[in-house]
Every structure is written in structure tokens, then in C-alpha cells.
Automatic annotation (TrEMBL):
InterPro entries (UniProt xref): ThiF/MoeB/HesA (IPR045886), ThiF_NAD_FAD-bd (IPR000594), UAE_UbL_dom (IPR028077), Ub_act_enz_dom_a_sf (IPR023318), Ubiquitin-activating_enz (IPR035985)
Domain annotation THIF-type NAD/FAD binding fold: ranges: 1-362
Sorted UniProt keywords: ATP-binding, Nucleotide-binding, Ubl conjugation pathway
Domain Ubiquitin/SUMO-activating enzyme ubiquitin-like: from-to ranges: 403-495
Recorded metabolic or biological pathway in which this protein acts: Protein modification
GO terms classed as biological process: protein sumoylation
Name of the protein: SUMO-activating enzyme subunit 2-like protein
Cellular component annotations (GO), alphabetically ordered: cytoplasm; SUMO activating enzyme complex
UniProt-recorded Gene Ontology molecular function terms: ATP binding; SUMO activating enzyme activity
UniProt xrefs under Gene3D superfamilies: NAD(P)-binding Rossmann-like Domain, Ubiquitin activating enzymes (Uba3). Chain: B, domain 2, Ubiquitin-like 2 activating enzyme e1b. Chain: B, domain 3
One Pfam family here: ThiF
Length: 685
């Protein structure tokens, strides 16, 4: 098992009590105080010790006869290679970051060892099973990448509080306390006046920005804030209790306690945030002056969090953005999603269930299970059959990718950092064009070879020893992960700075149709809807209601012709049905296909298939309970349920109960949008 944190503690306990005899744990982290509220194997006395080793010792106290081997190390270390992974029957993941998950997934594919993946987010969670040759791999569905923001938005025109947080921690905090060799006009020296920094940042800089009238034509103008306008001079001089923090450790220093601001969930006023700014800056200079010049933002550094919160709130006040509490600001700055111990326990139990199925080779009964926050059809756990491998996945299907990039301005370093390491998740990449080696990364390279490759990093792509131009194909490998992929290069001049800040777009890695129903955060309500007509076994037939005498139809019979058809608008304005409640039946999960005439025309069968595909593309917020097509009166009815109430679709019109006109239009737009995007189908209204 990889990870001995929130899920890992519960998982190790459950494995031990379930009869597993030989368990290996890998975790590089040490125990922190913040872990103790949910990682129940750890106590206050364990703070600072290895999670993997302490977890082993604690479990052996109540299960002394089993064998547990801990590794206090990074799973990406060279010792944990493909040969290491081949020693195990199954790998169980309890990780908390995308990079490590991708790395383990690739090693499991190379070693051909089944992987049971998991994750939780608050009340949501999921467990997925990945078996090479049988199911999709972890990376068959592209994962969301961390949100990035254009520098111009962050520095000049923030519109959200998150913009202020990013500016505070990544720009201003770094300028004040970061690299002392970096050229800037704000670097803090002992004895600097806090009020002058305040006025420069929040007053003078805003006045300079306001001088550009063009920028504010269609935007709300910010207001300059000077310290003298917010706090009286006497209060500035008397700010804070200077004795309260005199014996406090560096990382526990608190400007809040000096000022009597004891509630981190309270939203402080502009004046209180200004006082917090002054006090935090004073404490940094007086108590942590030796660290100034090498500090980086750390969400576990109390003083840094307070300082960033104060900065972000003052800037938000200047730009007319609502202020936030320190509790909220810490969550945004540290990308924190507060954990729920119960969710971890549920997910750990599901991991063990799937692990037992894998060990018994009961692959046909393996399930991806999603834990929901709110009941769906009276269930909180939604099991889904594992999907087949995505044929466009570059990891398990070796599909070539396409990179749109300006080859004349982008450097090899940009390509390595933004695409190879960030997007593709490779640790020690090797890049080739044809037979020419352009770059190789790794700690074991000889100095002269590493220096030679380093010279290439700052060259634009067209200036490399083997010039990379439009039409070139690069081969990128990671020898540790035993992964290789091909990237076709396409030159592109213009990029949208807002949507494409990297000025590089990686294409060719798409989600298959069946995955549109699955989401990684556990909100999946499509457990009973097959992935596609082709995915249904030919021996399986769709159930029909007994009291109506019509012929059962296999969905596989509906895929005979691949032509483009158009959904015509309903022209009969009087042909409508009154909204009615749909019975909430736990077992009413099947698609119901009624066909009175087995010899129906090809066009009708395709029309039926079209509606079926539309249903498959509905988002998980709409739970389809049944679908009926009656050829007698040419009526198509789709019953569904949303968070707004029941609804059904009569032909191309949507009728809802307990919902608004706006919501009906939204549902109709969703159906038309997804149907239009579906290959080979177009819609009009």
C-alpha cells in the first residue's frame, strides 16, 4: 500500500483485521499535529516521526502475528522500480497528489500488477480498480490540472478573492521575504518602516495603475488605500502586544494573538487586517529576520498565513471584492479540502473489498464505487462496472499526441517543464527526435553530459541541434516508469492568454463517450446506464413492462447505420402532456425500450439510438430513471430526476415539476449541446 495518511491509517487497520498477512507500506511523510484529528493510529507523542513506521508499530500491537514492512521514502525513488512492484499481488493507493498517483499507475502497468486507486474530498470519495488488459488505467480519463491565472489578471485586474490570494502569496510574499538577489523595490531590511511598505503597495501602486484610463473603461476602478486613512497614527505606533510572542517558536508565531483576534472564522474589517499586516511584518523582521531572503510560503506557517490573509483582504477591499476569514483564506492558499474521517473509513473498507476480489481473480465482479454526499435513489454508495481502456490514452494505448506550440519563441525548458513534467507527469524524461537525443534528465548523469543537455534548455525549439518545427515528431520516454509516447508538433502563432497561459496546447488525449457519465470526485449517478449500445453483451436484452405487449429489442440492433440525422423540432404545439410525478423505485434503473413493430424502419431505429446516446451524455446531475418510445403515437418520453424535482422529456420538449422556466431551458440546452457534440449527430431547435 502506498500512503499512510487519512485513508492509509484506516486501510492498514482494515487489512490487518481482514486477514492479510504480508503488507508493505510506503510513505515519505512525518506525522504533524494537524493529522491527529483523523489519522487515528497516531498520537501527540508521535509528532515528527515516520507515518509508515509508526503505523506499523501501532497495528502490530493488536495484530502481532502479521508481517508489515514500512518504507519511510518517496514512492518515486529509484529503488521502487518495476522489479520492486512485480513482487506484489496487488497495489493499494491512498495517495493525496496527482503526480504520485500517475507514477504508481505507470509502474503497475509496466509490472502488470492490479492497482486499486482511491481518494476522498470531504464527504465525497471513490475507489477504482485498474487491471492491465481488462479495465482502463488511472490516466485513461484526463485529470483536471491545477488552475493557473494570467499574470496580468493577478497583478492588475483581480476580480475574485482567489486572485488576491495568489497575488499575496506568490508575488508580494516572495518579494518581501524571498530571494534577496531578486531585483525588486520591496525587499525587507531590518528596520524598514511597515507603514511605508503599506502605502507603497496599496496606495501608490494603485494610483499608478489608475493612470491608465483604457484599463478601467469597462471595469470597476480600484481605490488607493493609505495607512493614515485607515488607522490613526497613535494606533499605528501602539499596534500589538510585543511581549505575548516573546517565547513562541518561529512557526507558531501569531500576530492574531498579539492583537486579540482570536476567531479565525470571523471576517475582519479593513482596519483589523491593516493592523494584522503591520504586526505580522514586525514579527517577521524582529523574530525571523535571519530567514528573510530565503522564506517561501508554507500553509503550516501560522504567521505566513496571517500575513497573506491580511494582504489579500486589503487588496480585495481596494478592488471591491468581498473579504474572507483567515479560515477560508488558508483553505484557498493551501488548496485545502477539509477531510472527514468517516469518508476515509468507508473508502478504506471498499478498497479491501476490491482487493479481495482481485486476489481471488474475481475480475468480472470488480466495481468502481463512488461515495456521494447526498443519497441518490436512496443510496450513498454507487457501484459502476469498470470501463474499458480509452483507445486515445497515451499511457496504456500508446496513442500519439499533438502539441500546438510556437516553435520560434518557446524554449526546450518550456516544453520540459510545462508539458513533459507537468502535463505528462514524467520524472526523468528522455527526449528524442528521430535518432537524435535532445535532452535527458536524471541524477545519475555525468557532469559534462548534464551540462551539455542544460545548454539546450534555453534554446528555442527551432534552434536545437535537431530543429523542432511544425511536422516534427518527438519521442518522450521515462525509463523509470517504462513509459514512452510520441508527440507530433504543430506550429501556432497566436494563443489566448486567458485560456492558454502556457502558450502550449496538448491535444489528442480525449475522454471516450462512455466516460462522460463518470466523474473522479464520486458524483456518479449513472450506475445502471450502460456505457454504449456496443458495450452491452449480445445475449442481454432490455427489460420491458409486462402489461404492454410489444417486442423486446436488443440495443446492439440499433447500431446498423452510421449516418448524420437531425432532430426535428416538435411542430405540434397542442401535443403536450401534463407533468406528473414519477414513482421513486429503487429498482427502476433500466432503460426501457418498447417497439411495437419489430420490422420498424431503419430511420426509426436510428432515431431511437440517437435519443439513447443523448441520454448517455446527460450530466450526472440528471438521473435518468426510465426511457420509453411508443411508436403508436410517435411519442418519446424520458423520465428523469434532478435536484430541482422530477422532469420528463416529451419528444423534444422538457416538462418539469417544481422547477423554473430557466431550469427547463437549461435542461434542453444541455441535451442539445451534448447531442451536437456526439460524433455523427446534429441537432436543431
Amino acid at each position: 500500500m502506498v500512503g499512510a495518511g487519512g485513508i492509509g491509517c484506516e486501510l492498514l487497520k482494515t487489512l490487518a483485521l481482514s486477514g492479510f498477512q504480508d503488507i508493505h507500506i510506503i510513505d515519505m511523510d512525518t506525522i504533524e499535529v494537524s493529522n491527529l484529528n483523523r489519522q487515528f493510529l497516531f498520537r501527540q507523542s508521535h509528532v515528527g516521526q515516520s507515518k509508515a513506521k509508526v503505523a506499523r508499530d501501532v497495528v502490530l500491537r493488536f495484530m502481532p502475528r502479521i508481517c508489515i514492512t514500512p518504507y519511510h521514502a518517496n514512492v518515486k525513488d529509484p529503488e521502487f522500480n518495476v522489479d520492486f512492484f512485480k513482487k506484489f499481488n496487488v497495489i493499494l493507493n491512498g495517495l493525496d497528489n496527482l503526480d504520485a498517483r500517475r507514477h504508481v499507475n505507470r509502474l503497475c502497468l509496466a509490472a502488470e500488477v492490479p492497482l486499486v486507486e482511491s481518494g476522498t474530498t470531504g464527504f465525497l470519495g471513490q475507489v477504482t480498480v485498474h487491471i492491465k488488459g481488462r479495465t482502463e488505467c488511472y490516466e485513461c480519463q484526463p485529470k483536471p490540472t491545477p488552475k493557473t491565472y494570467p499574470v496580468c489578471t493577478i497583478t492588475s485586474t483581480p476580480s475574485k478573492f482567489v486572485h488576491c490570494i495568489v497575488w499575496a502569496k506568490d508575488l508580494l510574499f516572495a518579494k518581501l521575504f524571498g530571494d534577496r538577489n531578486q531585483e525588486n523595490d520591496l525587499f525587507v531590511h531590518t528596520g524598514d518602516g511597515s507603514d511605508s511598505i503599506y502605502d507603497h503597495v496599496f496606495g501608490y501602486n494603485i494610483e499608478v495603475a489608475l493612470a491608465n484610463e483604457e484599463t478601467w473603461k469597462n471595469r470597476r476602478r480600484p481605490r488607493p488605500i493609505f495607512l493614515g486613512d485607515v488607522l490613526p497614527e497613535k494606533l499605528i505606533l501602539q499596534n500589538g502586544n510585543h511581549e505575548k510572542n516573546c517565547l513562541t517558536e518561529d512557526l507558531s508565531l501569531s500576530a492574531m494573538s498579539s492583537l486579540g483576534l482570536n476567531n479565525p472564522q470571523e471576517i475582519w474589517s479593513l482596519a483589523e487586517n491593516s493592523r494584522l499586516f503591520l504586526e505580522a511584518l514586525r514579527l517577521f523582521i524582529e523574530r525571523r529576520g535571519k530567514d528573510i531572503g530565503s522564506l517561501t510560503f508554507d500553509k503550516d506557517d501560522q504567521l505566513a498565513i496571517e500575513f497573506v490573509t491580511a494582504i489579500a483582504n486589503i487588496r480585495a477591499s481596494s478592488f471591491g471584492i468581498p473579504l474572507h476569514s483567515l479560515f477560508d483564506a488558508k483553505g484557498i492558499a493551501g488548496n485545502i479540502v477539509h477531510a472527514v474521517a468517516t469518508t476515509n473509513a468507508i473508502i478504506a473498507g471498499l478498497i479491501v473489498i476490491e482487493a479481495i476480489k482481485v486476489l481471488e481473480a474475481d475480475f468480472q465482479n470488480c466495481r468502481m464505487t463512488y461515495c456521494l454526499e447526498h443519497p441518490c435513489q436512496k443510496m450513498l454508495l454507487m457501484p459502476v462496472e469498470p470501463f474499458e481502456a480509452n483507445k486515445s490514452c497515451y499511457v496504456c494505448s500508446e496513442t500519439p499526441l499533438l502539441l500546438e506550440v510556437n516553435t520560434q519563441t518557446s524554449t526546450l525548458r518550456d516544453f520540459v517543464d510545462k508539458i513533459v513534467k507537468n502535463k505528462l507527469g514524467m520524472s526523468f524524461p528522455l527526449i528524442m527526435q528521430g535518432a537524435i537525443l535532445i535532452f535527458e534528465g536524471g541524477d545519475d548523469l555525468e557532469e559534462d553530459i548534464a551540462a551539455n543537455y542544460a545548454l539546450n534548455l534555453d534554446k528555442v525549439l527551432t534552434a536545437l541541434p535537431a530543429p523542432v518545427t511544425s511536422g516534427s515528431m518527438l519521442t518522450v520516454e521515462d525509463l523509470q516508469q517504462e513509459l514512452s509516447c510520441h508527440i507530433n508538433i504543430k506550429h501556432r502563432e497566436e494563443f489566448d492568454e486567458e485560456k492558454e497561459p502556457d502558450r502550449m496546447v496538448l491535444l489528442g488525449w480525449t475522454t471516450p463517450e462512455k466516460e462522460s457519465q463518470g466523474v473522479s470526485n464520486g458524483e456518479n449517478t449513472a450506475a445502471a446506464i450502460p456505457a454504449s449500445p456496443e458495450a452491452i453483451n449480445k445475449s442481454e436484452e432490455v427489460e420491458v413492462t409486462a402489461e404492454i405487449s410489444r417486442t423486446k429489442r436488443k440495443l446492439s440492433e440499433m447500431t446498423e447505420v452510421q449516418e448524420i440525422f437531425q432532430i426535428l423540432p416538435d411542430t405540434d404545439a397542442n401535443n403536450s402532456m401534463d407533468p406528473q410525478e414519477v414513482e421513486d423505485n429503487d429498482y427502476d434503473n433500466d432503460l426501457i425500450v418498447l417497439d411495437e413493430n419489430p420490422e420498424a424502419s431503419k430511420k426509426r431505429r436510428l432515431y431511437q439510438l440517437l435519443l439513447y446516446k443523448v441520454i448517455l451524455f446527460l450530466p450526472s446531475s440528471i438521473n435518468i430513471s426510465s426511457w420509453m418510445h411508443n411508436w403508436n403515437d410517435d411519442m418519446i418520453v424520458i423520465f428523469g430526476q434532478t435536484s430541482y424535482g422530477y422532469c420528463y422529456i416529451h419528444n423534444e420538449r422538457i416538462l418539469t415539476r417544481r422547477s423554473t422556466i430557466c431550469h427547463r431551458r437549461l435542461l434542453l440546452s444541455i441535451i442539445l449541446a451534448v447531442a451536437t457534440q456526439n460524433k455523427g449527430i446534429s441537432c436543431s431547435v
